[in-house]
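Q: How would the structure tokens look for this protein?
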Amino acid sequence: MERLLVLARHGQSEWNLKKLFTGWRDPELTDLGVEEARQAGRWLKQQGFAFDVAFTSNLRRAQRTCALMLEEMGQGGIDVLRSEALNERDYGDLSGLNKDDARERWGDEQVRQWRRSYDVPPPGGESLKDTAARVLPYYIQTILPRVMAGERVLVAAHGNSLRALVMVLDGMTTKTIASLEIATGIPLVYHLKADTTVESKSVLERDIDEAS
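A: Here is the predicted structure in token form.
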């Protein structure tokens, strides 16, 4: 039984490019973001991967990334399930602000705490702990049973919703999670053991200019 789980952060969004806190705001992908998503799909196809079901968030950048990946793989017809549980963390009052402007207003250390700490939320928003509180139950109750049944599962979501999940899969602590960065458009490929722990993990290293 394969027990395949692939996680992918959406391709670059318009607000990623502008260095804006995005959260639950809903910008589109940039041209680079579209190519990142397509390249991820091409790479997975070249490596012989295929999926039975996909999960994504309620936000367009993740949904389009998922669709583009599956299109490149010739799998546009599989079931794609959407859930708010997989949304990016809510950045609250920071949403729409430029990150450099936020540092000038509140200072580097305060902004770093809001962005990277496990349990310090930005004003009116969610901490990573809060994000994990909705991501992990959805994973355990809805996604994991499909993986353990032998279905090959793709999850296209966001930097922080995926950080919450990777923290558990990789056995990271509330301190080590602070240094984890998940790049746009690069799939994380997991194979799980029969006890739901990780058997193997690989991270795509790709060249965006690589010919398909």
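Residues 111 and 119 are 13 Å apart (CA to CA).

The first strand starts at residue 4 and ends at 9.

Upvote if useful.
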